[in-house]
Amino acid sequence: MAQHFLLVLLLPLIVSNTAHGTTTEAPTPSPAPMHTGHTMQHTMDHTGTHQPGMHHTGTHQPGMHHTGTHQPGMHHTGMDHTGTHQPGMHHTGMDHTGTHHGMGTHHPGMHHTGTHHPGMHHTGTHHHMGTHHPGMDHTGAHGDHSSTGHGSGHNTYFYFGHHEVVVLFLEWTINTVPALIGSCIGVFAIAMLYEGLKVWREMLIVRAADSSKAARSNSYSLNNITNGKSTSKLDVDIVPRAAEPSTRHQICNCMHALQSLLHIVQVLISYGLMLVFMTFNVWLCLSVALGAGAGYFAFGWRRPITVDRNEHCH
Amino acid sequence: MDMPMSFYWSDQAVILFDGWSVQDATGMAFSVLAIICFGALFEGLKRLVGWVGKGKGLWVDRETRDTSDPEAEESTPLLRSPPDVALTRKRKLRYHLAQSLLHVLQVVGAYCLMLVVMTYNGWLAIAVFLGAGIGYLVFFADMELKQT
């Protein structure tokens, strides 16, 4: 059962991998519907640089300053990135080698922290990125929130909005209000199920420990073993060492394998919820929080132990 | 700050530090292995924190038993000498300090793993999840109930 759940979770990852394998060749900028759900926008203001063949159409805004750099062969086919003023931009390790460079989604490995640009070299001719920038030409493109007028790829503040909200995968893009409502309900359900999964795992552990202790109780009398139901806190390991199974047997038995699989699922969902929260969309964040609360309320009354060491960031 | 906001599959990534930049498939394979190992060891670290906490708990019990047992106080007032209590307190403090340092390491490790997932690289995220699973398989094998 846990394996099917894993497959369902992994299927979108596999689908997105094959969907972005196609490369399009469009060296000349052509009007194309741009940025279907692509919120990453950047301003590259290359002052004082030598860049043959580079054309930036669109608005000219202060942004990243590439002062005094020499970039031969840098070919951005109509790459127009509007963005905010980011005085702390640092492009290191940006190395786009190779001719046909159909990147999966957008800018893998591009991390910007700092001011100067050592070692930025764009070798290679065709620099088209998957299905999203076939000669993109968007002048004055707007961000996903309209209040301030500028958009950046990654918001660092909470916003209300439902335009071009990308949640975890590019296919999961929210553009309309019904889609937002549906996504909120889905995220709410996932957060509730996450709490339920945690409680279920605890119950499994308690039940397994109870049954193993009951199996070993025939050699000596223990009067605080219940009759198979999950009890309250059992925080003392009172079984003597000699009666415990060997380490190899402990690792390889079925219950522990199931627990490990459930652990992977729990880690996956917890990171997914964190990434959903990182979209900084107020509605989605509220859904995560309220879903966690509802799940705790619904499943928590059966919780045997209150503190969870397996919770990832404690 | 410009970051990818959805998962992508690529052999190129910059992981946590500027110097750790992956360019090709072999680099990515090694990075995935390294992150799996780090994730597994992180689960072991969580187990270690609990284990040290249990050691501290023994000293806490001893201290509370020493100080809050009225029968022992009345029957053997001379045997409960102040240095004994001080030694217990010192031991408990040492265990608590050790546990606090390990807790700091655990928090740092947890945030680092979160930042690795936040690169949104599909391979790296899978590496984190697999590392957590393998670490749990190895280090949480004796199926003890959770320690507080």
UniProtKB/TrEMBL annotation, chain A:
Residues 48-67 are annotated as: Disordered. Pfam families: Ctr. Its main location: membrane. InterPro entries: Cop_transporter. Residues 1-21 form the signal peptide. GO terms for cellular component: membrane. The chain crosses the membrane at residues 172-194, 257-274, 280-299. Keywords: Copper, Copper transport, Ion transport, Membrane, Signal, Transmembrane, Transmembrane helix, Transport. It is found in: Membrane. One of its GO terms (molecular function) is copper ion transmembrane transporter activity. It is a multi-pass membrane protein. Belongs to the copper transporter (Ctr) (TC 1.A.56) family. SLC31A subfamily. This is Copper transport protein. The lineage of its organism: Eukaryota, Metazoa, Chordata, Cephalochordata, Leptocardii.
TrEMBL record, chain B:
GO terms for molecular function: copper ion transmembrane transporter activity. GO terms for cellular component: membrane. Its main location: membrane. It is found in: Membrane. It is a multi-pass membrane protein. The chain crosses the membrane at residues 20-42, 97-117, 123-141. The keyword Membrane applies. It comes from the Eukaryota. Keywords: Copper, Copper transport, Ion transport, Membrane, Transmembrane, Transmembrane helix, Transport. Pfam families: Ctr. Belongs to the copper transporter (Ctr) (TC 1.A.56) family. SLC31A subfamily. This is Copper transport protein. It comes from Branchiostoma belcheri.
